[in-house]
Amino acid sequence: MSLFPKLPQNMFNRSNEITSPAVVYDAESLTHVVHHLRRRLGSVKKMKLYVSMKANRNVGLNAYMSRVVDGVDVSSYEEYQVATIAGYSRISATSPGIKIEHIHEMIENQVQFDFDNVEQLYAYSCQYNESRQPKDIGLRLNIPIGSNGATTYLSKSRFGINVSQSENQQALKEILKEFHYKVISIHIHIGELNNFNTVKDTLNYLVDILSLFPDVQTLNLGGGLTRLFSNEEDIDKTFELIQSYTEQYLPKLKEVIFEPGMLVYVMAGYLKTSVLSVNNGVVNMDSSSWNLIEWTKANVKIVYTSSSGDMEQQTIAGNTCYEKDIYFENMASNKLSLNDYIVLFPFGAYTISMSKSLHGIPTPKEYLYINDEFKELSVGESQVYA
Fold it and tell me: What domains, with CATH codes, occur in the chain?
């Protein structure tokens, strides 16, 4: 079973039924990827598959996803609100940028909040645990080892507590003692897990400091699985290593959480965008590359076109007045004319959630294609599509 789902040809053939521009998520592709991830991660026996909301925070889509994954990880109070409306039964959270009162609200509503730094934990404790009542808490740890990848941060990360620094370790010990805390959750997120050696080095570091946290029940290894899953040789031995590690060093462990975002959504999303005008070989579309995909532009391609015209070199541009708002420059495609449309892929992750609004241009409507129907996913919707 391949990680890559088949292109939804039936959806392409019916894409004239929805207005343009539109982002469409294919439900069959989403469930295909989730099933594949569960199978490959299955060697980690206590594995829980979450999804990272920062990749896509559409409420209706998350309502659908809440039925096919075990939980969701959020990085803001706003994402937490989406997760609640969407109906996720399990929510984890970590960020240095969440107000203390919002952290308290999350914890009171059974969110596993993993504190990002010592000052955040102390501020919360002073405001909401003045009585020093014993509590179970979680921590995000910084992994201060050298990085072997541009998007693997480790020692370069600005997030998490570096307990190898004596000052941090001493302050943390004092807070845990003073406020009667027991650390039951450890959260790391280092960007891309990258390869087997990255995971091995990270786990070896954790071995050295886990004596500080003898009560750990949850280990959240974050997301960043995309590059790892591109290396077939590394996949199985990496997860076998994680399983071996947890059995040997975490006797009280109840779950190991993975929370990919890009890997779950990226291959399930498509953009339908139509031609507004053509000028000297430049095709002006009704959506903006600059507003939508500046971060992921290099990977996007045309997978369907309504045009049956001859092949021609054209520049396909977005609908802003920014000179560099270009989808494709001088590329060969079926000649596009007024009202023709194309479908672009991949468009599921970090597009709408990271979109800009130059000129006040709204983001495209979003749809879930399920059971051969397009279901509009409005921003405030919480209905789960069966």
Answer: 90-260 (3.20.20.10), 265-376 (2.40.37.10)
